[in-house]
Amino acid sequence: MRYTVFILLLAGSAVAQQPQLTPSHPYRYGRINPVDRTWEDWQRRTGEQPPDFASLPSMAELPDPLGGVKTAADWRRKREWIREQYEHWVFGKMPPAPANLRAVVAGTRAEGGVTVREVRLEFGPGGRGRLRLDLLIPPGPGPFPVFLTNHARNRPWIYPAVRRGYIACVYHAADPSYGDSDDSDAFLELYPEYDFSCLARWAWASMRAVDYLATLPEVDRAKIGIAGHSRAGKAALLSAAFDERIGAVVASSGNTGECDPWRYTSDPFGNETIEQITTNFPHWFHPRLRFFAGREQKLPVDQNLLMSMVAPRGLLMYSSYSEQQGNSFGMEQAYRSTRTVYRFLGKPDNLWLHLRAGEHPTTAGDVENFLDFLDAVFGRHAWPRQETWIHGYTFDDWKRLSGESIDPSWFPERETGGFSVNPNGLIDNHRADILKRIQWALGEEPGGAQFPPQRRLAEPNLSSDGWISGLLGRPLKASGMAHKPLPFGDGLQGDLYYPGNATGKLPVVIWLHGLSYPTGYSRIARPLIEALVERGLAVFAFDQIGFGTRVLDARSFYERYPRWSLMGKMVADTRAAVDAVAALENLDSGRIYLAGYDLGGKIGLFTAALDDRVRALAMVCGVRPLRTDAPDKGTEGIRQYSHLHGLLPRYGFFTAQPSRLPLDDDDLLAMVAPRPVLAIAPTLDRYAPADDVRRTVEAARRVWSATGHDAGLRLETPVDFNRLTPETMARVTEWLAGGAGR
Prior knowledge:
Elements: E1 6-11, E2 14-19, H1 39-46, H2 72-91, E3 102-111, E4 114-123, E5 129-137, E6 144-149, H3 159-163, E7 167-171, H4 187-190, H5 198-213, E8 219-229, H6 231-242, E9 248-252, H7 274-280, H8 303-308, E10 314-320, H9 328-344, E11 351-356, H10 364-377, H11 395-402, E12 421-422, E13 425-426, H12 428-442, H13 468-471, E14 481-488, E15 492-499, E16 506-512, H14 526-534, E17 538-541, H15 557-560, H16 566-583, E18 587-597, H17 599-610, E19 614-620, H18 637-644, H19 665-672, E20 677-680, H20 690-706, E21 713-716, H21 726-737
Parallel strand pairs: 6-7, 6-8, 8-9, 9-10, 10-11, 16-17, 16-18, 18-19, 19-20, 20-21
Antiparallel strand pairs: 1-2, 3-4, 4-5, 5-7, 12-13, 14-15, 15-17
Helix pairs in contact: 5-6, 12-19, 14-21, 16-17, 17-19, 19-20
């Protein structure tokens, strides 16, 4: 579990508030170093403290790999800088290549026309270093290209490569949980003066394999490819980034710490965060990386820079858009950034993006795809280049499709709280004006027919949420929790969870998820859903367009609806969900609540502003003021909605003049008053400066105060990052189960 005990840590001359993270735990099959078993052990022993975050620049979006680069020589210098930063913050310092490497052939045999050679490399101080290699050499005259991997023969990995004329070389530096010992673990004692982490040791081992391969007449040294999956994919990418003798790399489903940038692994994305990965696998990365949990924008580097180091050599980004630890959005952003370097170096065709269906494991068919890529990069066969887009949105594409052009000077500058109130709340003309601006922001919703509502729980469901639902383990199951698939909206299906022994009409919470592209609602909010049901509430949950079971549905949205918006569709779907739960005779239409995290909070805010049937709203990290956005605040600001996620494209015309943005959260909150609202806004939310949130909420509070409901708007500001902790979920549950604060 997570803790909300807070500690003060000295960082240089500054004092920084640091929420306590989930304690790390030792990994059975790997070590941080010869002394420390956990991250906490390392910090206590070394006394190392977080960097002075106030002095580090904030980069909300990915750092530009070509920043300051104009010539090839500039790029060489930039590559060295990236390596230095990675060795300091992420992977630790690697030893230099040993000058005394010696190869001992331990055995040779024939196997189905293939020559199998077992080799032991000896190197390092006193020649005590050991690394075992298995070479499978295909029949026929060489030299052959190489398929280098640390996936041993008990995994379905190397066999298609041998059939297609590659030498398969397995180096035995991998996670022992896969059934093989890790030769690189002994490097800790061999090189005690170097602090290279486990993934860095695997990568360094692969480089020693390349040392040996480069001496063999059977090897085409210009065609050495490396491939790895999951944690081995992380190491393979590092190998290719640091060793230019490797001609191409297949990075398969390594996700966090591989091709999904750290900046897109924060809690709203619902995948593997820095906190989670360093808690469960404290030995994979250098312990310093953990300091950046919740402060990803402060990292001087990100994975797009590591990927750029591979250029102009081959790089295949390979993952599933539906695997639970993945993030197709993050991979697309990294791909776009890395592509600029490949274009700069004149080899854009050497970068591929392949986002497949399915879950995490790979098949022999996936390995065939890897070999197609290697064949193409090595000039062996002209396979078509892969560039798979799941989201594919850009602001420029939207402008072309919509034909819109907005001059911000047409709009007045607005101050926070620029509306008038009376004892009834907002005065009528201001309410009408805000409503008009909401409709402008959401775009032009096409007319639609109403889906026939169901009245009883026993009615059959003829809608479907598709095949991805099975991968996500839906419906959720828990003791005492019943389930009904409920159709709504434009033929969609959501999941209604309720107490199995309930009698009478139940209050209902509509849960609205964050930016969890691969998993939608069902990953991080499961404990909240179960807790609410246990307290006697029903919960209706569904995936927004572009997320979870609907991850593929947003790709062509703006071609189909160029004048609408994704946020407009999300709000329309949420209002349709209100229709659906209001119609069920088992639910209390007078107690319909919305609860949302991050993006879901914003959807809830828009929905509650438009629909009075919503009787209360709970938001975690949902208030995100935009008019006060400024570059020095280090947030994604308006661009998060207009340029990155494509939620509210019209906002994109105001990035340089945010004070002229026609609509902001104070306006939306004012429209919700005087209904109860709980806004939980962590003080260290990197997407929403705490002072801006307080100013926005206090401006809107005037409407609650004018109507005598000042307590109806509750702002809670825990010292924490943007994350949905067990404590926060418990607070939301208590507020909703207690009658939404009344």
